[in-house]
Every structure is written in C-alpha cells, then in structure tokens.
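seq:
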Amino acid sequence: MNRALSVSTYQEVSTDETKTDSPHEIWEPLDLLAEESASLAKWRSFALNGRVIPSYVFIGPRGGSVPIRLALLGGIQPEDLVSTSAIVKLLVELDLAPLLAPDFALFSYPVANPVRVSSPSPDFSTDFWTDAPDPTIRDFDQELGGNRPDGIIAAKGNEPISGFQIQVSNKLIATEVLWPALEIVQRLVPLASEPIQTFPQPQNSQLRPVPFTLIVRTPRHVPFENQISAIAFSVKQILHHYRALVSRVDKL
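struct:
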C-alpha cells in the first residue's frame, strides 16, 4: 500500500469518526503506515475493557545530534476525538515529510485515556503522576518513567476557551518556542486573549522533572477540522523551534 492511499485512508477515518463519536478506528492509518514506514513503528500497547490501545514511535532522520525524546499525548480526556485525530494527522504528515522532525524520537499516544465501560476515567490533571491506582495511570507512570522524555506535549480539543491556547511549564520554552509557533496558527483558529500560559512543572518520584510539559488547547466553537489542523500544525512548529533552541544551546 502506498503512502498516498494511507493519507486518503486517514481523511476518510477522521471524517467518519468525527461523526460517529467512536475512537476505535481513528488510529487505523497509523497501523497501516507502520507496516511499511522506515520512520514510524508500533510501540507498546495496553489492554482496557477487552480493547488493545496502541501507541507509536516516530524516529526522525539523524543529523548527528542525540535524538530528542518527546511524548505526544492525545485523548487525555475521554471521547476527545479532536486531539486523537490531530496526533494521527501529525504522524501521517511527518511520515510523508520526515525532515520536518530531524533528530526527534516521538513516542505518541493518540488515545491516552480511553473511555471505560464500567468505571470512571481518571483525571490526568489531578491523578497523573500521583501513584493513582488506575491501570492507565500506572502504565503511563511506568512508560514515561522508563522512556525519560525530554518533554511532554499533550493536546486537548473542544475546550471551553475563547481561542487557541498553549499552557507550558517552562518560561524559556514559552518565549523562544511557543510565541514564534503562534504566528501562522492564528490563520486557522482565533487566539485566546492569553494564548500562552505558564504553570508549575509536575514533580514525581518515577518521572523526574522534564525540561518542559505543555498542553495545546483548541476552542470548541471552531470546526473540528480547523482544530485538528491547528494542533497538528502547531506541534510541527514547536518541533522546529525547539530543535533550533536546542541547537543554539548546544553551541554555547
């Protein structure tokens, strides 16, 4: 199967899933790509309520530097199809143009917090990295603790906010990476009155403090496709500007 067909499959799945509100097949294009891609592979999966929830790793072209390890999380809120679709779209586009992510290892979780059948889903904003008993939380504690990412990028769609916004734990990242990334995003969605907010970095005994954690948020009053495109495009811009920042720091 060629990559053009893979992109076509993504578009069909994305449209159908948005209408049916079922995330079960959203990641199918990634499974298809992973079978033939030199950059994208299936990573670890976990089982929940009889379903196998996959994750993926994208390895960008090596440019001589130590790979930057980032975790990409979609669907951290159950039934958030926007962010899940955005992570799928992002990985499909990076597979088509891997030079957009040189020296990156992107551990990607399109459905980080699946809908439960008989129990409430955890709240990642309060339960994550707090030794909560939920199996998904425990899996991520072990997964991210073992991978030791250099940064964590999460996405949230359909948020009750006035415009596009990124929350970040690192002021240097906010200044050097995020503000430049907003220049073109505002053509897709309006910006919030405070498009970049800073918050304290989470602390945990297993996952040591990472250089940054950020959350990309899109407003619910914007069409789904605009939100999906805004998340995918903004993450690509974040990768570009963060790579440039790391290169400048390495030269000091």
